[in-house]
Write a structure and sequence with these properties.
About 45% of the residues lie in helices and about 20% in strands. It is α/β, with parallel strands linked by helices and about 325 residues long. It folds into 2 domains: about 150 residues, Rossmann fold, CATH 3.40.50.2300; about 140 residues, Rossmann fold (3-Layer(aba) Sandwich). The protein is elongated and about 65 Å long.
Amino acid sequence: MRRRDFMKVVAGSAVAWPLAARAQQPTLPVVGVVSGQSSQADARNAAAFYKGLGEAGYVDGQNVTVEYHWVEGHYDRLAAVMADLVRRKVTVIATTGNNATALAAKAATATIPIVFAVGQDPVKLGLVASLARPGGNATGVNDFLSEVDAKRLRLLHDMVPKAVRIAVLINPANVPSAEGALKGTREAAAATGLQLQVLNATTIGEIEAAFASFARQRPDALFVAADAFFATRATQFITLTARDRIPAAYSLRDYVTAGGLMSYGADLAEIGHQVGLYTGSILKGAKPADLPVLQSTKFYFALNLQTARAFGIEVPSGLLSIADEVIE
């Protein structure tokens, strides 16, 4: 072979080799994370998810690709998001802190592993066969956000003991959570003699309309059901409750740090962390059918004393003593 021809071969190989090497590199597994909230409202939860995933040995962009999808309370978008993830054959679908997202994932695929966080019994929701042995392609965490509604209502009554009429705001578009909230609050109201005024809201305007109705039928307090759309509107709730000076109880601590009066429920950051850990386990080869559904055992009670003072509420010492966080 002449030297000139030899150099052409070498030069050609030098170009072809890196291309071939890149082509042979394994494709990173893809995790599609779907949240019912907005990216801002879900920031702590997302950070906790990445932390759990990292503890399981996976780092986004290094050995896994994480795609986050926030539907911002628009539940009608879920079917399309899930269909796209299934079409692209992602490795795992993770849904964080919302019944509707988990149900949409389960409806979209019976084969791609799903790691969920839901606020109601996943067996009753049809997500798993049992808590100990899920038996299908889904597992995750039950954070009881809907099932602690009865206690949250009692805490609100303890905060405002003279309250008799309580407005309960639900999002009928989020059927499982809305039904759970109504069941829990009605049971608690029957036991304590409270009167409930049920209001619906699925849009920003309907939240405004619900508060406008208070001028006609003035409730003594407001109970805001657990809902991803409501969580994206925390600032709106804080503004309206301050304007109308109506004490309100929420499901998430983030409302209270934004200026809300009180909250009681599972810490979604802890839930997100566990969803991340379970996602990592599945990436390593574990099967959802063999991973038992976990149940929250820690619940977070937060109070905002600044808001209480602004509303002229003297917080009972008993509530202060059991609060996990008191914002001065």
